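notes to self, project folder thing:

trying the whole complex as one job this time. last attempt i did each chain seperately and stitching them together was a nightmare. three parts in total, labels are on each line so i dont mix them up again. if this works i'll redo the older ones the same way
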Amino acid sequence: MRRLAYALPLLLFAALAGYFAVALLSGRNPHELPSALLDKPAPAFDLPSLSGDGRMSGSALAGQVVVVNFFASWCAPCRVEHPLLLRLARQEKVHLVGIAYKDRPADSRRFLAELGDPYSAIGIDRDGRTGIDFGLYGVPETYVIDRAGHIRKRFVGPLSAAAVDRELLPLLRALARP
Amino acid sequence: MIIELGHFALALALCLALVQSVVPLAGAARRNLGWMQVGQTTAVAQFALVALSFAALTHAYVTSDFSVVNVVQNSHSAKPMLYKVSGVWGNHEGSMVLWVLILALCGAAVATFGSNLPRELRARVLAVQGMVAAGFLAFILLTSNPFLRVFPAPADGDGLNPVLQDPGLAFHPPFLYLGYVGSSVAFAFAVAALIEGRVDAAWARWVRPWALLSWCALTVGVALGSWWAYYTLGWGGWWFWDPVENASLLPWLSGTALIHSAIVVERRDTLKSWTILLALITFSLALIGTFLVRSGVLSSVHSFAVDPERGIFILALLLVAIGGSLTLYAVRAPALQGGGLFAPISREGALVFNNLMLATATVTVLLGTLYPLFLDAVGGAKISVGPPFFNRTFVPLMLPVLVAMAVGPLLAWKRGDLLAAVQRLWVAFAVAAAVALGGLYIAGGGPVLAILGLSLAAWIAVGVLMEWAERVRLFRLPPRETWRRAVGLPRSAYGMSVAHFGVAVMVAGIAASAFEQERIETMRPGDVLPLAGYDLVLRDVQRIPGPNYIADTAIVEVRRGGAVVAEMRPQRRLFTVQRTTTAVTAIRSGLGADLYLALGEGDAQSGWTLRAYHKPLVSWIWLGALVMALGGVVSLSDRRWQVGVASRTRPAALPAAAE
Amino acid sequence: MKRLLLLLLLLLLPAGPAFTVTPDERLADPALEARARAISRELRCVVCQNESVDESNAALARDVRLLLRERLVAGDSDAAAIGFLVARYGDFVLLRPPLRPETWVLWYGPFVLLVLAAGGTWVALRRRAQADGPPPLSAEERARIDRILREDEG
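result (full assembly):
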């Protein structure tokens, strides 16, 4: 019994080292936050439309599989992912909706005029509240919402070709099945 | 050329370290004098080589040699010279070279000044030092080499993070590393003792100066870091329970337990396995801290650039060093014979209590720091553990320690009289009660914890004085007799008194932070901001260029009772290369309180945001830490401890029982 | 007992110093503003490294501060306002980890450890005192000592 007590520090360290190894080798990013809204209903939103007429609301998207992309003209990584978004919209025929986060409408329009507009609708989130409702903590972020209106996946940071091909498109195909 | 020399020197040092790890150890086992003495030669040579290597790297920074990758990433020709030099250790690779430099210095010191150690013990200690050095040298050469070249050399560097261009920050890492690495000596002594299978009072006397030295350095290092955060970060916070801050606090807590525990081993030849374990754990915590900071496993303001490969290497180092030493402990420690008995109420009992509380506090901080990691690793939710957790767990644990601090030194060894000790402290109790009641009255009933803290500080401070008065029989013997006793008291007794007094000062400073006052206002030139009896008048905001920045400088007049007492100039600096802004605070420090000003955003049209704080007793926090470290130094200067370091007289006999 | 613990916990609530907030964020009602500051100190800025929403200069932190004040003005209780943010960002946003089965080790661990360690130390010291003490006298030895002592006295 006494000998066991002396081995206790070693055993505790072994457990500690095990956790360290798991943390290190799993490649998890300590800065990345998983979405708190996974498999929960997407927040309702009702935003003015960038195209000037009317509004863009979440309720209008009900019953379809939608990809919501938060972007801004001042966001450099958004430029990097933009070609992928164009590909998604034009070639893969993904229903892509954009939300301009804390951006001046004139700047957002200029951004899209320069790089192309992949969105079927764009909402203006001037004060960032809709972003907070989604649990956003940076741009760009992309959300996949299913027919029932639940958030199924969140991509943090610019989309990569690998993420699109290996995760986004398969998920969309799975959700598209009746 | 010089860089290549530095690189080569480091590689040679690694070879020497490997030799040092094996040969003296074998020599001690075989009682071969020649092999044992190899350890001394290699230790000194290793230090010379690593010093050469460090000098080469420093030379590259000083001359802005941008053909070296490390210099390009972390320096810039426009940087002031002091920061070019401190830039050497302001990055991951360079800081590791500083680490091994101090490690080699400690090894050389043991080799040179340890002539009074038994040969086998010294050989084993140097061998363990060599192993640690070899591990870190390999780490540098294989994963974090600062001597890599880039071709073609860019015209200029990427500049240092402007937040790191600061005098306080220049000294913070060296002191910290001295503390971390210094604890490796105690670690080496502990491992050597376990290998030998013997821990006795003499061993404790040899270990204590090293443990004390590293503890002093760590105290100063942590305090410097806290002070730096205070005057840099713009709102006067000085401790955030950030993972990397905790990583420096953990070895300090365990190191404090170690220096106290070693007293018991030395005086009463007991608590041996506990002290050995503490020596192992203190350095282990320093290693774990290194892992946390440099592996990217945790997110923190302080983290160096992340690289999982480095993390894996350090983890391997941890497994060998900590796993190996703890295995040795599990196997050998049961054989260590316990020595003297003691009653629960006794000086030993008080020190055991101190150890228990400090150990629990250490585990608490470790648990809080690592828990998000644990939970994430087992697939649980992602949570945060912040100041609210630590304030609710760490603080209540330390309160009993603070109470006991005044009582413990008054208890006799082996069997103490608690009632008599407490009775002798009646003055301290009266003063503490007066502070508590007075504080509650003045502050109108709260905040209770802060007033309790001030009361405890008084308890400890007066208790220290009472204990000294008891020893010299103040007012009970004629003054000349008292004086004779006072002069004759061993320095370690004064060291203890000074260090404990420093704790009281620091606790008072921490407690008083609850009484700070804050004003944040948008101001235009001519506006007046009243704060804590002062009137702050914004005279003007000017744009002033600096060596590598442009600063918006607010000129604030501080008035009291109508008369101008001071002028303070908080700034907002825009660094031209990095295009980042940092706020430079203006602080008027006084023993009673600090006036703390920070300039926020703004412009001429809409006005400027000024944040003004009145922080009573805040400088006592760092003064207290300095006094604590001073106490440690006083204790170190006690001739009797120099048995383990240098000897001018023959080795001292065990100290007199009057202690 | 529960009330005592609650009282103890309330006593231990630190009265921390106030931190940064820009003047234009401040609410007119000082009581609400005080609540907002207290809650902000308990919320983590998710884009910063270990800062509270109250301390941080980040844009998102400012948005959260404003949002918090809006909700308090709208009449939310402290718990409801915090819950609003937790629903969106998860428990990660709480600087004080919630007390749940998966955090029991975190919250109760220190106390349990202290009790175990203290108990273990007590037992170990006791055992050593008994083991290392001189062996008790046998009846014969005791008789001999009594005889010797009596002789001395006589």
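what i see at first glance: The domain at 17-93 of chain C is CATH 1.10.8.640 (Helicase, Ruva Protein; domain 3).
need to look closer tmrw
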